[in-house]
Known about the structure:
Layout: E1 2-4, H1 5-12, H2 18-27, H3 40-47, H4 51-76, E2 84-86, H5 90-93, E3 102-105, H6 108-119, H7 123-131, H8 136-142, E4 145-148, H9 153-172
Parallel strand pairs: 1-2, 3-4
Helix pairs in contact: 1-4, 2-4, 6-7
Amino acid sequence: MVIDADAITRELQEPGQPVLEAMIQRFGEEILLPDGHLDRQAVADLVFSDEQCLRDLNAIVHPAVGAEIAQRMQEAAGTDRVVVLDVPLLVESGRSDMRGLLVVDVDPEVAVDRLVRFRGVREDDARARIARQASREQRLAAADFVIDNSGTEAELDAQVELAWEWIRSLGDGSA
């Protein structure tokens, strides 16, 4: 079972959801697209140029996402399911209640290029986002297992297989 913090965030920011309503109260309706959905670029433009706006956004979004993650983890408790938390800011959160921490690593310049090419993020925005995250060195220091995502897709697939073996070993006590 994968619990994806970004997907949860998007769910909680849908029209009519309390998180989006709180964001509108704080930042105004200019953060909305004409159809009432969140304009993520408008939010990024606000929060990555103003520290207080970023703190306010985090105060609205992070507790709600954390509560939803906790609920989903509780639903998996007592089962034999492997639960993978896909949390981009996990190192920054200080969370330490996991069996292991897997980090997918790539050179920050490659990350910027991929954000621009594949997700349509402006380069300046991509760099601002990365600058506010834990450094590559901090993530690697916290990692129990590292996947290097700088190679080919085939190389990545092979590393994912090794990662899955490592994850399974956590459950049987051999790691």
